[in-house]
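---------- Forwarded message ----------

FYI, see the MPN domain-containing protein record below. Original note from H. follows.
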Amino acid sequence: MAHIYKEEQSLEKAFILYMKYITLFVEKIPQHTEYKNCEPQEKALTKSNCKQVFPIAEELKTLLTEKYQKEFDVYLQQKTILEKKQQLEEEKRTEEQRQEWQRKLDEEKGRQLLELQQKLDKQIRDKREVREPSATSAESKVWPHVGQDLYDKQTPAPVVSSNADLPLVPSIDRSTKPSTLSFNDFQLDSYNTSRVIIPQRLIQRFLVSAQSNTNRNVETCAILCAQLANDVFTITQVIVTKQNGTADSCQMIAEEEIIPIQDRHGFTVVGWIHTHPTQNAFMSSIDLHTHWPYQQLLQESIAVVCAPKFQEVGVFSLTDPHGMQLIATCKLTGHHLHPEVPPIYERSSHVQFSDTIDVELIDLR
């Protein structure tokens, strides 16, 4: 599957799978107590595969590093441009506020000067009237309508407030200034969930194979296998392994028997399917623990639950990260309770049913 991702230029997904392979076969498996009992041929084959995978993973690492560096350079350029733009806008706002303050200051000074001039003019007129009363009276007799009318038409001096001081410098409002740009603003989603196509015939064929167990109120389970093409998983095989079932649980046995089939067909395991003979379609605590390793190995993995009594079919996934983390740390076995809020699992949003694709059911029981 990693090779397919590499060919389709899904470099992040390919690199993750190669690193999982290296970690598993170089670090984890050699520490297992049964490793010393493995056949020398198997050890040699694994060692040979690892030698092939290491340079591929290193090449992908280099390509991804270059890709991320280019993206980061673009981010820095955009960040610099945005900061420069914000700086220019801030300087423009500051200059506009300074000019507005200066305009108001000039207006206030002009008003005060006008008031002062009017006061001085009035004082001069008052003193002149005191010094020349006869002249004013004579003028009034000759031109009776001129003297008083002239003073009546003078613009009265406005009252000057004692608080008529110069205005304060206005404060600059920075409440609308954008916050500092973070890298998350440009971060890309590096691992998108691929679609999973489920053939409509899959459900019917599986229920037919499980009918005898369903009649006896015994659960039946099977493995879902898919082919990967164009970043889409299409389920093409359903493998019913040897198993032990009860009314509310089902345990696969001899799962290693599917390895030759997997090698022959080159498929990818994308989850599992099982029945609830007398209950609704939901995920019990046992189901959640059964599904966790599937989704841990492949995030697209699904759990299909068939409830023939109620004619229900549910397709579920553990919520990520909450559900995955909770089940990973839960040490309880059998049926037990989990906190319901926030949800541990949900209906899978990346699945699509198709009535044009056939599916093969392989029964190993």
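H. also flagged this: Residues 40-131 form the longest helix (92 residues).
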